[in-house]
Amino acid sequence: CLPLLVPATVLVCSLLFRVAHQLLQRLPVPTVVRQDAFRSWKWKNLSVSMVHSVLTGTWALTCAVIWPETLSNIHKFHNTLSYLLICVSTGYFVHDAGDIILTGHGRGSWEFLLHHAMVIWCFLYALYTQLYIAGALIALFVEVNSVTLHLRLMLKLANAQSSSIYHINKIVNLFTYVMFRLGTQFYLTWYIVHNYSWLDHGGYFLITMMMMNIMMVIYFYRLLRTDFFPRSKRYTGQNGTHNNNSKKFLSD
């Protein structure tokens, strides 16, 4: 995946995730999910996201363990495997943004599109310049938490909030959120601030990281409020959610 081949490589990776999307539709789906158009789309979307999270989260951690310099030389260190990882992940975010927009869910998922836009531009910059590949790889540590986040939402889609799996997962999700999402974001922010004077385009990355940090803290607050300090049952009806509030219910 050389810089001149970045567009083609990212496109191929994006198409591979589309193939995964089609294959995953063959798996069984809870009845309550099949009966609701929004839940059905969200389930399919999350299934592909889960594949991406398991793949890239494991890949990123493995690279960091094998090549510890990844954690300290964020600016310049990279190798073929780390470079390919960023190509694959960029392809996923392009695919997911396309899926959200082309299925007509762009307005209700604007925060995801904003997140994807920031990730795509940072990753493409890294791929074209071959700088900050290690930083992009470290950023993918958050995908460890994404596994439990996606599982949480899929269990909510299936109306399984009262299950033991959901209660166990929400504890694990809290731990991985702090460790792998907030910890990763704050480490990268510290690195940029500490080395700001000599980093290439440090200002652009610092602004992007601060925007991401704000989003992550807001979502963390929503997560704590919903899973640990629920204020009411206003979203819950006989079938799990009121129809006119299902999107809000599932976004928490």
Descriptive overview:
By secondary structure, this protein is mainly α. The protein has one domain. The protein has eleven helices and no strands. Helix 1 packs across helix 3 and helix 3 runs antiparallel to helix 5. The termini are far apart. This is TLC domain containing 1. One of its GO terms (biological process) is regulation of membrane lipid distribution. Pfam families: TRAM_LAG1_CLN8. It is a multi-pass membrane protein.
Number of domains: 1
SSE pattern: HHHHHHHHHHH
Using only CA atoms, what is the Rg? Answer: 19 Å
What is the straight-line distance between the termini? 38 Å
Oligomeric assembly? single chain
Residue fraction in strands: under 5%
**How many H/I helical runs?**
11
Number of strands: 0
Quick check: average pLDDT?
Answer: 91
From the spread of the alpha carbons, the general shape counts as globular
Tell me the helix content.
over 70%
Biggest sheet layout:
none
List low-pLDDT spans: 234-246
Structural class of the helices, strands and pairings?
mainly alpha
Domain TLC: 38-232
Main location: membrane
Keywords: Membrane, Transmembrane, Transmembrane helix
Membrane topology: Multi-pass membrane protein
